[in-house]
Amino acid sequence: MLFLLSSSSSSLTTSPLLSLSRTPSLRFSLSSILAIARPHSHCHSLISAMSTSLSSHAFAGNPTRLKTPKPSDPFSPTSAFQTLKTLLSSHNLELSSPVFKVLPFRKGRPLAGSSADTESGSGAPSWHLGWLSLRECKTFVENSEVNFNEDSLIYLGSRVEDDAVYWAVDLSEASGLVSVLGARQFCFVELRTLMVATDWADARAMGELAVAGHAKALLEWHSISRFCGYCGSKTIPMEAGRRKQCSNELCKIRVYPRVDPVVIMLVIDKENDRALLSRQSRFVPRMWSCLAGFIEPGESLEEAVRRETFEETGIEVGDVIYHSSQPWPVGPSGIPCQVMVGFFAYKALTFAEYKKAQRTAATKVDQMCKGVEKGQSLSADFNVESGELASMFIPGPFAIAHHLISSWANGTTVNGAEAHIKQPASSLSSL
Q: CA–CA separation, 410 vs 366, rounded Å?
């Protein structure tokens, strides 16, 4: 069964979700709330398509960061940076081993190309990152009259099996690059576009997506941490761009890459086997997702789940079970990288207070998870009067919200979560 709890006043739908807990009588008028029932066993085959088997979430599983080499290793940040300085100062950019590969960015967009997929035999287009050699990158930058030195490059990682060290560089200030690189069938593409275009069964593409996400997060962090937060002096890159330090001799504060933790939770009614979804005004039309919110100083992850759930819905949850986590470098502007920490939160939900609830078949969950079918329109909303359900969907497999919902709906085990669903009290993660 589906229960739709829509706003009582359309003029309130753009209000901040945080305001929900301030006025109890209006707490459900600021965002729509949806409860969905898990399909019975005969419906499980209908929703099997909603879950994509991934060895890791999108942007996780970076192949260049599987381990940190020792400082004496030529692939380590320290050794690679010293080699980089030597190469740039000697103007001899030829290096037999290891090979230096550079990924240019422009305004947060990585360089990428496209080619036909010959491995699968489908001939479908497949994207790949636009890696340049150190010589190529230096030539392009110098022709654009932009300063290029060792501090311009940021160490990303290495792969011993490829005999390569990987770097990123921000070329937003370089002019004429778009046309020059375009002649080589390269262009700067939004990371979100690459995310959606990624073939989830392609390990290479998933790995490159993780590398691009890591690079974007570091470059954006560098761009917003140009000055010391203590004394206001300029900061300088250190350790091949992996940290920064205040240039003021009396300060010398060390600054490390910023990561913003976010809890994202699927609230589950374990007694009636239902789950709660919400939608915010910033969502695309008809999309529903899990509740989420930033962790505040001085609180645990479980406390953040309970606080955010109550602030956004007025519902108090008890057991909180960890599901998985995902780096998210495509969040709001000014936040280099979030880490989404996913949970199941349990509460016996009651819906008697909702006057505009409506019901439909549990098989509609399949429609939500697969997305809008061909020929259907996204312009229609829920028709409360007729009781008919319009097209709706949840985030795609690139988002952890998709896997929280699909693992619950399919009853699959993720980090032992399904066992905890049946017996939440036995979990050591429960508080």
A: 10
User: Tokens standing for 374?
Assistant: 């061909």
> Helix, strand, or coil here: 185?
coil
Convert the pLDDT of each residue in 29-80 to its tens digit: 334 566 666 655 434 433 333 444 456 799 999 999 877 888 889 999 999 9
For 248-286, b/e burial (b = at least 16 CB within 10 A) is eeeeeeebebeeeebbbbbbbbbeebbbbbbbbeeeeeb
- The one-letter amino acid code at 215 reads A
Three-state secondary structure call for residue 149: coil
* Measured distance CA(305)–CA(320) in Å, rounded: 8
**Do residues 358 and 2 lie in contact, with contact meaning Cβ atoms separated by under 8 Å?**
yes
Instruction: With H, G, I as helix, E, B as strand and everything else as coil, classify residue 177.
Output: helix
How would DSSP label each residue in 261-289? EEEEEEEEETTTTEEEEEE-TTSPTTB-B
CA 234 centroid distance within chain: 30
Q: How far apart are the C-alpha atoms of 116 and 124, rounded to whole Å?
A: 5
CB atoms within 10 A of CB 32: 21
> What would the pLDDT profile of 72-104 be if each residue is shown by its tens digit?
899 999 999 999 998 888 777 666 678 999 999
CB 242 within 8 A of CB 257: yes
Q: How far apart are CA 359 and CA 357, in angstroms?
A: 7
* Structure tokens given for 36: 């969905």
Contact 418, 309 (CB under 8 A): no
Structure-block tokens of residue 172: 């937003």
**Which amino acid, 35?**
A
Q: Where is pLDDT greater, at 397 or 376?
A: 397
Cα end-to-end distance, the chain, whole Å? 30
Exposed, middle or buried: residue 78 (CB in 10 Å: 0-12, 13-18, 19+)?
Answer: middle
- Taking alpha carbons only, the member of 72, 74, 70 closest to residue 83 is 74
> In 3-state terms, the chain is what percent helix, strand and coil (to 5)?
30, 25, 45
The structure tokens listed for 27 are 């707490």
pLDDT on residue 72: 87
Is there a contact between 110 and 191 (Cβ–Cβ < 8 Å)? yes
Identify the CA nearest to 276 among candidates 361, 373, 343. 343
